[in-house]
Fold this protein.
Amino acid sequence: DQQVKQNSPSLSVQEGRISILNCDYTNSMFDYFLWYKKYPAEGPTFLISISSIKDKNEDGRFTVFLNKSAKHLSLHIVPSQPGDSAVYFCAASARNAGNMLTFGGGTRLMVKP
Amino acid sequence: DAGVIQSPRHEVTEMGQEVTLRCKPISGHNSLFWYRQTMMRGLELLIYFNNNVPIDDSGMPEDRFSAKMPNASFSTLKIQPSEPRDSAVYFCASSPTGREGLLTKETQYFGPGTRLLVL
């Protein structure tokens, strides 16, 4: 039973447009959420995070939105660039689980020039 | 800092053989995680060590898998005997502190992974 789900395995976007990646979770104990980015042949790297006390966090072209009532978060990339093409993983941390993370299955983003 | 180091980067073996994957965490990090990435299941946590002690191994698929952390700078993940369904990319990650570190963005740092193919 996956507690963190990314229902879209892939997404294709034109350069300059907005990319929206979605993530749903089921565990109400999750109170901190992260997005990781992974290029081929490399390990995932941290991108942006959000605490459950917030509903939005912005870092340059990247914004994460959290809807706690819907148990849903999304990552917006504006404007999208070809270098953003990668696999994006959503991850969640529960308040009683130290620094353990539960990851979603990932979404492959392709930004076309 | 060299980051998390994993070896080998690629491993091809035959069914039934023993496979040992190695990880050197970032110096000073006291948490270490082993993950497996597959197309079907995404990124799954296999086992988590804190201060060299296994804390949660509920993700270890079965008895064929074992992990050790004999000291703060080295961990191994062993599969014996290996099976074709074990083919995946295995990642090691380390983290500097507990939850306080997570909340200050000192999040998990991943190695480059070991791509395992069991024939």
Q: What stands out?
A: Chain B touches chain A through 30 residues (CB under 8 Å). The radius of gyration of chain B is 14 Å. The mean pLDDT of chain B is 91.
